[in-house]
Fold:
Amino acid sequence: MNTLLDQELSVIEINSINSEHFLLKIGPLLPHFSFNPGQFVMIKAEKNGTLLRKPFGIVEVEDHTLTLLIKIVGKTTKNLSTLKKGDKIQVLGPLGTGFTELQDHNIVIAGGIGIAPLYSLLKEYNPSSKNQTLTVLYGGKSYDHLPLLEKVYSLHINCSIATEDGSVGHEGFITDLLGERIVDVKGKKTKLFSCGPRSMLKAVALFAQKNNCSSELSLEEYMACGTGICMGCTIKVKEASSTDSFTYKRVCVEGPVFNGGDIEWE
Amino acid sequence: MGIDKTDLSICIGKTLLKNPVTVASGTFGYGKEMSSLYDLNKLGGIFVKSITKEPRRGNPPQRIVETPSGMLNAIGLQNEGIDDFINNKIPFLKQYDTALFVNIAGSTVNDYCYVAERLSGITEVDGIELNLSCPNVKEGCMVFGQDEKMVSVITHKIRALYPKTLIVKLSPNVTDILPYAKAANDAGADGISLVNTFLGMAIDVHSRKPILANITGGLSGPAIRPLALRMVHDVAKELSVPIIGQGGIDDLESALSFFIAGAHCISLGTANFYEPFCAVTIIDQLYDYLEKNSISSIEELVGSLETN
Structure:
């Protein structure tokens, strides 16, 4: 189990990817900070920060430096984008469950910034492995919505892309490509790992169910604490008991990674 | 060491708290999650999340949203029910030497009585806090808390069957809090928690929909601090019943202001979400403050407001 730490870190650098996305690198992390792919941190900037911390999936940790992928969507992320080297950020983590290990055959489906918590999982894969296969399917609205594409390419993993506007790769949804990929691995032990918009995750879960393979999905929900004490970030999960068809589970502690088959989709 | 001379302990009813800093119900789960961050023995007390007779699954999401200097929540009392609490939560909580208060809620008076009776035999539980103030459920709770007569009736009934410390948590969503505090006090409450959340709402102007699925929610955090402080003052100047002050406390100064206004102890709520170590930090700072200012006990500070 990874130790939960609350650390005050400094901004090391901010790497702009495009007008909407940037990589926030902060550190130095305590030497015993460790995490599983899929875990997240709750962060709050000291300067102009909002009241609550906000959750971000861990992209990677290298040289005691934590990298987060941020999309500018509101007050918090706008403020984070204006931070300068040396500015302080309070970081609580690692939090949540994370993904389990890669199986023999793996398909990783990412939508937009959903690539963030999946990236460290990709790094665990050895492309020259003879016993394991991994395919990345990465989709977004347009090329600009594939913020970690270059980083993914640098891992030399088989990667297919799709954009809704057709600016790059297949024109349409990334889940359109799932059918082609699963054919290659039918009958073998295939696992789907995914993070992205809720509609995409639902498509992945239903696809997995139809094709008798398991899926692990990282979900997002509005959070106040990240530690399980506020009960604010719940999602509907199928309930085994006879009295109820579903129950609410906390994304922050029972997730953010859930088995696709357990989720009660709206 | 001066610390030995400085007395932070305080009595609420039949319970002696080692220090006056507690954590508020609904903001600390049942202790387990936070125990991985710090030693719960440091706390003066823990008010665990509301327990009901039967399990409740709570309100649909979205349940929370941040607002200026605060947050709205509409969790809807999600909990696993009294049986699960006794069987699965008590064994964990009983290892800690801190006052344990169980917040109880229900849709009917009988529901409250049932849960209180079940808890009366649990030695590890020091007291119960009657939730007459949750604004996010359709029955019981705030519906009772906005009716002076009901506050009196339900407090009487629980008092008759529950011998240990009995605290009543009141809703601030009333014109004048004093009659409600009087009703609880006259009916035998040992302490009054002031205050629960203020009913509020937030709207997504693009979709023109309420942000919370429940439409309304309870506002907490520093945004409500002056409002809560005023209510503590309103009650403390009229009644001598111990008050558990709460509402946006997140640092030493805000903690001190509640003691000065008349609170015997304080509860941290929303701060547990954004500054998880806040409660233990305040305890240390409170020791230092009393020492530096040659105040020998927290009781000297309680109600020390000078208004002339």
Summary: The interface with chain A takes residues 26-29, 33-34, 36-37, 49, 57-58, 60-66, 69-71, 73, 75, 78, 221-222, 270, 272-274, 276-277 of chain B (CB under 8 Å). The longest strand of chain B covers residues 45-51.
